[in-house]
Amino acid sequence: MKVEPETREPRTCRFGPLVVAYDERVIAPRPWTEAQSRWSAEIAAAAPPGPMLELCAGAGQIGLLAAVLADRDLVQVEADPVAARYARENAARAGFDERVAIRSCDLDDAVGPGERFAVVIADPPYLPSDHVASWPTDPPGAIDGGADGLRVVRSCLAIIDGHLMEQGTAILQVWGERQARQVSELASSSHPGLVVGELRVEDEDRALLALLREPANAG
After folding, report:
1. How far apart are CA 129 and CA 46, in angstroms?
2. pTM exceeds 0.90 for this model
3. Any residues with CB less than 8 A from the CB of 82 and at least 6 apart, and which?
4. Are 176 and 207 in contact (CB under 8 A)?
5. Nearest to 56 by CA among 205, 173, 191
6. CA 176 from centroid of its chain's CA atoms
7. pLDDT tens by residue, 29-52
8. Is 218:167 a contact under the CB 8 Å cutoff?
9. Contact 78/55 with Cβ under 8 angstroms?
10. What is the rounded CA–CA span in Å between residue 143 and residue 123?
């Protein structure tokens, strides 16, 4: 029997031009993550035709803003049913719900074998488990990346490798420059079809890493 998420009084905030709803069970939108949305939209302007994919979408604001700015269809994946419900509501509030598909499921079940995406956005839980207590107002499931912080990142890389179009780009949010180097090494060693592109460092805790799909005839 499917259990519907409990309803609570939502909070709202501005996220660029959007109004985003969430509550304390969902990670609150961070204003700085708007940079991920806008960079993804810029990349989409030159990317191949096709939809965008957002992994670990939370309340959906990062991918939604990117899709609205880029005028692209969007698939959002979020395992938590409460966050997925807010993602649906936020897409509807933006008048974009007919172009957004929300998949409330685990990452392993999120994408079909033949699906390909021009742009992939990922904001996975990336904190090592022993750092989670430093963020007591955040839902643990939204920030706990396992012992090394990379458990969910690895799943995201596998999906990106399997479903990013040729000449497509993925933008990952990671835990600062040090983790960006770790993710770059993982991508290079385990997913040789992906090319590490630009790194944008916000501060010691926040960074964005671009991964590109290498053309099949490269080299």
Report:
1. 38
2. yes
3. 5, 6, 23, 25, 26
4. yes
5. 173
6. 16
7. 999 999 999 999 999 999 999 999
8. no
9. no
10. 10
